[in-house]
Specification:
Layout lengths: L18 H10 L17 H15 L4 H7 L4 H13 L3 E6 L2 E6 L1 H31 L8
Antiparallel strand pairs: 1-2
Length: about 140
C-alpha cells in the first residue's frame, strides 16, 4: 500500500535527460521512487521565451546578457536571437555604459508585458472556474490524495 503523504519534496528537472539519470540522481539524494506516474519534457514556445525575457528585464532594470540568460533559463543561441527580436520590436533597448552592454525594457515592452499578464490572469481564472464546475458536476470523477 502506498502512502502518498510521505512525499514531501518535488524535484523539477528542466533538462531533457533519461530516466536512468533521474533515478541515479534521486538515489544519491536518498529519495526512493515507488511509482513513476509520467515524465514529460515541457518545452517553451518562442512566445513564452520572449515573455520570460521581458519579465526578467522588467524585474531587474539594467541587466547584462548573461544574467538574462541564467534568469530566463535560455541557451546562448536562443538568447541572442530572442533579444534581437525584442530589440527589433522596440520592446527592449540596448544601452552601452562604461561597465558594458546592458538591456532594459522600454515603455512599449512594459505595456506588452502588462497586457500579456492580464490575458494570462483571465485564462487562469477561466481554467480554474472550469475545474470547479467539473468537480461540482462530476464529483465521483475527482480523486483527493
Amino acid at each position: 500500500m502506498c502512502n502518498l503523504s510521505i512525499c514531501t519534496k518535488v524535484i523539477l528537472i528542466p533538462l531533457p535527460i533519461s530516466y536512468e539519470r533521474i533515478d541515479a540522481y534521486l538515489n544519491t539524494c536518498n529519495i526512493h521512487t515507488l511509482y513513476v506516474i509520467r515524465l514529460r519534457i515541457i518545452r517553451r514556445s518562442k512566445f513564452e521565451r520572449l515573455i520570460d525575457i521581458l519579465r526578467v528585464v522588467a524585474s531587474v532594470g539594467l541587466i547584462k546578457q548573461t544574467h538574462i540568460m541564467y534568469k530566463a533559463n535560455l541557451t546562448w543561441d536562443e538568447l541572442k536571437k530572442d533579444l534581437q527580436w525584442l530589440i527589433d520590436l522596440k520592446l527592449i533597448e540596448r544601452t552601452v555604459i562604461s561597465e558594458g552592454i546592458f538591456y532594459r525594457i522600454t515603455n512599449l515592452g512594459s505595456d506588452a508585458l502588462s497586457h500579456f499578464e492580464k490575458i494570462e490572469l483571465i485564462l487562469k481564472l477561466n481554467y480554474e472556474e472550469k475545474l470547479y464546475n467539473e468537480k461540482r458536476l462530476y464529483p465521483y470523477m475527482t480523486k483527493s490524495l
